[in-house]
């Protein structure tokens, strides 16, 4: 994949978020790597990498500054690209809470109101389109794919400013992350995108018990090959502290005995695919919980389902015990059956398979981090929306193969925010 960014886009935090998210997802998805071209010698405005410039961030994230290689799909960030340079060329666009990936010749949004979370979404959607193109899906690159993070309703038109949200003045600043794999690290990446006025006022409680495996780097945005064998909590804490956040590490399982104390963060973001843990999400003492689940097979790995609590339906009803599952299926889910196949069992024994974020395409394990990143943008947006005084979505379903055909249920009332918040920088 080839990314381009022009001088005007390079000084926009949201455009930088698009570039770096597309790059981070791309190097983990496409075996041929990602080349980047354009104005890179500018200050880094979204500090999700350690360097001082955009060029430093590109290198740190595994990109190569180089001209376009013949045949490589192009994603343009701002600016113009010569027609005919590639068989496949799209661009990202944004304005406020709205973002998308569109054909190169399509009209861009106004791109005036900055919100790096939208840029992150645009970058992930662009990679999803490149993936679809390389997977032989004929509509990829010939359609506009986008979303309003403010309004997930299926009738909301993301290209219309009426689906936009307000300028952000305050942000959630107390996070408890349950699970630090594919989704958990995408949540952290999204938190790093939020425009906090003071990152030192943000607390991150990081909970996991696993170590990074051989394939974790293919799915998890903050993990490198050198991290194999290290605890995910330590990997994520190091990254977060380098960004200026205050962290705490919890290396115990999230199980039926777990309870939050009143002095600990009240906003939980769940990224585990364990139904036992999900079953108790609204029983652990968190005033607000937002979780996402992804598909895991060749047919459904681009599916995203988000839940938030409190809601009219309890978490125990959404994720029943095995004994409560229809006996016709023996209480065993399709995903569980797949994970019991000999090839999966052998890979787990060798420590080579980090199941979260992997799917099988033609019997080959494929990392699809752009799915988790899209889910993370949606999850964090719901938390920001709640702080802004709007009712949050309690359930949402999105398929990256057809983003327009989605569904969402929004609560009746706004939440009483009892977790800590912090002031945001201006995003205009």
Structural class determined from secondary elements: alpha/beta
Q: Strand order within the widest sheet?
A: 11-10-9-12-13-14-17-18
| Nearest-integer average pLDDT | 90
Q: What is the end-to-end distance?
A: 30 Å
Please supply descriptive tags for the structure shown above.
alpha/beta, eight-stranded mixed sheet, seven-stranded mixed sheet
What can you see in these coordinates?
The protein is an alpha/beta fold and 428 residues long. The chain has 12 helices and 19 strands. It has helices at 7-10, 13-29, 54-60, 116-134, 182-193, 216-219, 232-242, 275-279, 315-318, 334-339, 342-350, 369-387; strands at residues 2-5, 35-38, 64-65, 74-77, 89-95, 98-103, 145-148, 170-172, 174-178, 203-207, 246-250, 267-270, 288-294, 303-309, 358-361, 364-367, 393-399, 407-410, 421-423. The strands form 4 sheets. Strands 11-10-9-12-13-14-17-18 form an 8-stranded mixed beta sheet, with helices on one face. A 7-stranded mixed beta sheet has the order 3-2-1-4-5-6-7. Helix 4 runs antiparallel to helix 12 (369-387) and helix 5 crosses helix 12 (369-387). The model has no long low-confidence stretch (mean pLDDT 90).
Quick structural summary:
The protein is of the alpha/beta class and 428 residues long. The protein contains 12 helices and 19 strands.
């Amino acid at each position: 994949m080839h990314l381009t960014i022009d001088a005007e886009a390079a000084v926009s935090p949201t455009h930088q978020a698009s570039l770096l998210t597309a790059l981070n997802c791309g190097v983990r998805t496409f075996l041929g790597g990602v080349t980047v071209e354009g104005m890179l010698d500018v200050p880094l405005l979204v500090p999700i990498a350690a360097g001082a410039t955009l060029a430093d961030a590109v290198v740190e994230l595994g990109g190569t500054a180089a001209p376009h290689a013949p045949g490589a799909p192009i994603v343009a960030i701002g600016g113009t690209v010569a027609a005919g340079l590639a068989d496949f060329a799209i661009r990202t666009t944004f304005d406020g809470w709205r973002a998308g990936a569109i054909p190169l010749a399509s009209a861009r949004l106004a791109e005036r109101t900055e919100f790096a979370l939208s840029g992150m979404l645009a970058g992930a959607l662009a990679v999803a389109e490149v993936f679809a193109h390389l997977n032989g899906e004929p509509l990829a690159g010939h359609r506009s794919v986008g979303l309003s993070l403010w309004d997930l309703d299926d009738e909301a038109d993301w290209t219309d400013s009426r689906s936009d949200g307000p300028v952000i003045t305050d942000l959630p600043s107390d996070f408890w992350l349950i699970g630090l794999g594919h989704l958990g690290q995408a949540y952290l990446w999204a938190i790093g995108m939020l425009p906090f006025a003071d990152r030192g006022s943000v607390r991150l409680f990081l909970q996991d018990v696993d170590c990074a495996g051989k394939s974790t780097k293919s799915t998890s945005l903050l993990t490198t090959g050198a991290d194999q064998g290290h605890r995910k909590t330590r990997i994520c804490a190091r990254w977060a502290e380098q960004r200026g956040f205050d962290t705490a590490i919890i290396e115990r399982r999230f199980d039926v005995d777990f309870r939050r104390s009143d002095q600990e963060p009240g906003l939980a973001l769940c990224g585990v695919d364990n139904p036992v843990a999900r079953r108790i999400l609204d029983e652990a003492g968190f005033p607000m919980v937002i979780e996402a689940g992804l598909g895991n097979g060749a047919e459904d790995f681009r599916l995203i389902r988000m839940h938030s609590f409190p809601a009219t339906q309890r978490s125990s009803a959404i994720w029943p015990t095995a004994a409560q599952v229809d006996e016709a299926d023996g209480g065993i889910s399709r995903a569980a059956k797949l994970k019991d196949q000999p090839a999966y069992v052998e890979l787990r024994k060798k420590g080579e398979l980090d199941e979260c974020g992997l799917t099988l395409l033609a019997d080959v394990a494929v990392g699809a981090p752009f799915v988790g990143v899209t889910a993370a943008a949606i999850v964090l947006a719901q938390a920001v929306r709640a702080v802004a005084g709007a009712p949050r979505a309690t359930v949402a379903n999105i398929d990256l193969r057809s983003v327009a055909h989605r569904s969402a249920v929004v609560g009746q009332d706004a939440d009483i925010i009892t977790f800590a918040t912090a002031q945001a920088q201006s995003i205009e």
